[in-house]
Amino acid sequence: MDLPTPNAASLDKSVRKGASLVRLSIFWRIVLTSLLIIVVMAGVNFYALFQLRQLSALSTTLVSQHYPAIEQAKHVQAVAYNQLNSDK
């Protein structure tokens, strides 16, 4: 008559309860953690590249639209000062 040992009973319970649980070795935990870090860093890099692309587009818009207006305003101001000086 064989009596089940406590280890066999606890093993049997753990097999029944956690059949879907997989115990990972330390190596695979380190590998999965490293992969997770790489994925997160890649996401951060893509987000930064997207933001830099938006900033570049805004800078291009600024240069193409606002700088000519500023230069024209400076020219109008210079002409107005020249007219004031010539009247004196």
Can you describe this structure?
This protein has 88 residues and is mostly helical. The chain has one domain. The model has no long low-confidence stretch (mean pLDDT 83). The protein is 84% helix and 0% strand.
Defining key terms:
single chain; rod-shaped; mainly alpha
Distance N terminus to C terminus? 125 Å
Low-confidence stretches: none
Look at the helices and sheets and give the structural class.
mainly alpha
| Number of H- or I-type helical stretches | 2
Proportion of residues in β-strands: under 5%
Number of domains: 1
Could you tell me the number of beta strands?
Answer: 0
- Give Rg in angstroms: 36 Å
Q: Judging from the principal axes of the Cα atoms, what is the shape?
A: rod-shaped
Rounded mean pLDDT is: 83
Secondary-structure element series: HH
Largest sheet: none
Helix content class: over 70%
Draw up the topology in text.
Elements: H1 6-17, H2 26-87
Task: Give a concise summary.
The chain has 2 helices and no strands.
